[in-house]
Amino acid sequence: MGYVEVKMTTMVADRAERLVRRRSTAAIMMGTILIVTQSQRMDDGGAGPVSWGITGLVMALFLLWASGLFRDPRLRGMLNDEGSDVNRRRSLMIGFWNMLATAMVCYALSFLKDYGPRDAIQIIMTVGISSALISFGVSERVSIHS
After folding, report:
1. Would you give the end-to-end CA distance of the chain in angstroms?
2. How many other CB atoms are there within 10 angstroms of residue 131's CB atom?
């Protein structure tokens, strides 16, 4: 391996580390912002279609950016290494179980308070997505510092 190849690999690795740090911070911030914005939109009608459309678009853009889909294949490989794959799977599992638990709580609360399906869907989706995002961001942060 020549000096130029080693230098390029080092530059790509440094760039990947910076992007992983940004990705972890962005995931934590997006999860927190989602909780705050969706809790402010809780009213009689629930979140409207525009709100959900914007939320979906922002999440899709984050996933495309965070995956490194439009980046150099070497950089994408470093961004999506085995550690990130494990963190992603764990975060999806946490989000899934939190959604199930929230659905059970919403069902139990429906006997005490009459609220519509939009409210329940908004609560379930917000808890699941935000917990998965925050969990992923924290896991990535921990793996960076270990």
Report:
1. 28
2. 22
pLDDT in tens, 9-68: 778 788 888 888 998 999 999 999 888 887 776 665 556 677 777 777 777 888 777 877
Most distant CA atoms of the chain, gap in Å: 70
DSSP classification of residue 95: H
What DSSP state is assigned to residue 71?
A: S
Residue 2 Cα distances to 7, 8, 9, angstroms? 9, 10, 11
**pTM beyond 0.90:** no
- Dihedral sign from CA coordinates of 100, 60, 57, 16: positive
Check residue 44 and give its pLDDT.
55
Instruction: List Cα–Cα distances, 100 to 4, 50, 122, in angstroms.
Output: 52, 25, 13
Tell how far CA 146 is from the center of its chain: 21
SS3 for 42-61 is CCCCCCCHHHHHHHHHHHHH
